[in-house]
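Aim 2, interim progress: modelling of the manganese (II) ion-bound target.
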Amino acid sequence: MREGIAEVAAVLRQAGSVAVCCHLNPDGDAVGTALALRLALLRLGKRAEVFCRDKVPALVAMLPGADSVRAFDSLGETERFDLLCPVDVSDPSRLGEGWFARMSAVCADSCQVDHHETNPRYCRVNCVDGDAPAAGLILRELLGALGVPLDRALAGCLYAAIATDTGNFSYGNVTGETFRVAAELVEAGLPLADMNRALFVVQPEAQVRLTGRAIERMRLYHGGEVAVMTLSGQDFADCGALTEHADTVVNRGLAVRGVRMAALLREDGGRVKVSLRAVKPDTVSGIAAAFGGGGHAQAAGCILDLPLAEAAERIAQRLCAAVDGGDA
Ligand SMILES: [Mn+2]
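Predicted structure of the complex, ligand included:
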């Protein structure tokens, strides 16, 4: 059993009410894991609410309970919980400015489930496994410890979590456990083909057009080993796209043969959000950290307070240097 599973299960079992929290701009793993935990807690007869600063993305809006996710600012004056439980939240700041402190003040205790190695173990009870390809995989083990059997609804949530964070079971972090859990989910009634079409095929028109923009703007550096794409606020407006529509666009950079590292820079509220990807054995987490960000070895991100073109130059230089001589 993973370190911390039994301890997290124990505090969850004791709690009568739990505030499950997702990171801002939540992805499939965050929402799927949070909703699976919510279902499990409801099944155990507890009060469970999922909170997130931002809206659930359309990608996972079909999951059971997605419409019950609350904004933090819906928190009532006198609302209290026995337990705060962030899932897939690498750092308290990832809940959104000030929200970890605010939620901690209304929750008697705290525990978390996460899979980012950089996680500073900010809760009282922590289950953090940096080797787990998705928080959803840790949650599946936690359900076992809680004695909650899988069913179709739980399987859908966990599949969305695991399949999205593993690039549909394609990344190097996928293990035998990943497939064993996937097999359990299929056996529990998961509608596999429908889920895969919803998660990996269908996109809003705006997202398809935004991807086209980014590809058009792609510049290659360092003899074609580094790809940098930019999306301006105008690009988003032209395509009618939202920030979440750019989430997987960075991977298009790695689609170019010969590219070892890719970056997508997008204007977002006066700042530039940078997504970085690398092909193993290259890493980008050190570059993200050098700019005050973080993430995984081959998938990381940071935010720059620079004009878009200048930010792109800085990132391109850094990636070229990394291709020459290693990360950071
Ligand atoms: Mn995750």
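The pocket of manganese (II) ion is lined by residues 29, 88, 115, 134-135, 165 (CB under 6 Å). The chain is about 40% helix and 20% strand.
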